[in-house]
């Protein structure tokens, strides 16, 4: 490992930093480097014509929510030169890195001329490219990925061209891939007035969420008229005989979709690291650049940031992962600039503590946010966990306009360590996930969540905040006050002869919302104490209500009255109903 050679003392001469890639990580590194050293020579090489642009805002420009195209280019080569004295060269692709002689070979994408550029320090901010699998017909017209402003413009121009010949309400657009970008594109294409089909290979949308949380968002999409096809992928694109620019999509199942005038390919991203691998710089099996805690690569004087980098998973000791998010990329860029100059001056280097995956997506009026590990990841790693689902209002119930927040907290049942959280709802969702993300970064436990002091006024919260409630519910499990079975086991439990399902909702609620299960016994919570004798003490009682709170109260009543085998149904009716709306 050559990392220890990364100690050139540059204080006596002007340092030359070459950065490959702009956007988030590269542009942040360049700006910070200039603030640290007015005399450094800073060269930023960027493929394509834009150096720093609002990549996360592109779906909203396609849909017409953002109307000013000029706002999409956050910085230009000229503005960066004038403000920060940076040498920014757009339309320039690096085709070779010579780490031994500390130089790169760059190609001008407009005239194909090539030249060498030397460096003292090299920062790799190459990003990730949309994944385009070898599906027959994938290069047909009308099929687009969305990585840069040129692709964004091409999508808008294509839609406008099609709209000259066909009313928008007659058009059919397909979005392949139900990740964050896919969901945002679905929303924006519906805003445009088109009929939209969403196709996803997995059995749910939005992989970072667990299935019951994703189901809430999926149901909302379907209510907005979006057809959601899960567990199926695109097998072939063919020309539509009545319009050569439209495509017939055949799915792997054999299902044929109506002709599509536009298809957005949101099939995930791959690190754009071919040149880095060829240079002999260490990468993972999936192609992400390996870095140490200071974001140095295996090559001397070469650093890496952003979507192409594998970083520490701070939740699981010794684990690494790749999380392509703009926030971490920006902070990594700044840190690398600090570490380059701290190395040169002998100061202590900053350590990147890892990425928690804190993220949010909007779909029409619904927001979905998450942080950390989900249930699927923990099951795959065979890590014991427990989780609580709560469904409170976003603010005090007596103040008008409160919206339901569906929040899931995943934690270690033995000590209360927080593994992750997910929330879905119309209001107050990202605020709660931000609080839990901060708590995780401060190594807090569910006990701490229960005790957090947070802002409260009736229009914005409750005296006992949603985060407090989640912490308290988890605390009850850690301390053994209640045990639970998962919502997903309800159907199996309903058929077990030794199990009794007890629904403590009021009869009117059941009439409006539906039964928990055909064989469930209904005793409203307020009547439970008077009817304890009607329940068998030798059977397994599984208790549910609408959202979980009354069922917890019922479990405590039962346990303190000699019922030993009592479980709360995790997530209660609300969670089960989100996944199985037709079965209740």
Number of helices: 16
| Principal-axes shape call | globular
Radius of gyration: 27 Å
Order of strands in the sheet with the most strands?
5-2-1-9-20
> Between the first and last Cα atoms, what is the distance in angstroms?
60 Å
Helix content: 25-40%
Could you tell me the strand content as a percent range? 25-35%
Low-pLDDT stretches? 1-11
The largest β sheet comes out as: 5 strands, parallel
- By DSSP, the count of extended strands is 32
Rounded mean pLDDT score = 95
Compact summary:
By secondary structure, the chain is of the alpha/beta class.
Give an overview of the whole structure.
With 584 residues, the protein is an alpha/beta fold. Helix content is 27%, strand content 25%. It contains 16 helices and 32 strands. Strand 26 and strand 27 (418-425) form a beta hairpin. Helix 1 (25-36) runs parallel beside helix 8 (326-345) and helix 6 (211-223) crosses helix 16 (572-579). The N and C termini lie far apart (60 Å). The relative contact order is 0.09. The model is unreliable at 1-11 (pLDDT under 50).
For the structure shown, list the relevant keywords:
five-stranded parallel sheet; 16 helices; alpha/beta; 25% strand; 584 residues; disordered N terminus; single chain; globular
Blueprint of the fold:
Elements lengths: L15 E5 L4 H12 L4 E5 L6 E2 L4 H6 L9 E3 L1 H8 L2 E3 L2 E7 L4 E6 L5 E5 L2 E4 L3 E3 L12 E2 L4 H15 L8 E5 L3 H12 L3 E6 L10 H13 L3 E4 L3 E7 L2 E9 L10 E4 L3 E3 L2 H5 L10 E2 L11 E3 L4 E4 L7 E2 L4 H20 L13 E5 L2 E7 L2 H6 L5 E5 L14 E7 L6 E8 L3 H13 L4 H6 L14 H13 L5 E3 L3 H5 L4 E5 L3 H7 L7 E2 L17 E5 L4 H11 L6 E5 L1 H8 L5
Parallel strand pairs: 1-2, 1-9, 2-5, 9-20, 11-17, 12-13, 12-17, 13-14, 19-21, 28-32, 29-30, 29-31, 31-32
Antiparallel strand pairs: 3-4, 6-7, 7-8, 10-18, 15-16, 21-22, 23-24, 24-27, 25-26, 26-27
Helix pairs in contact: 1-8, 6-16
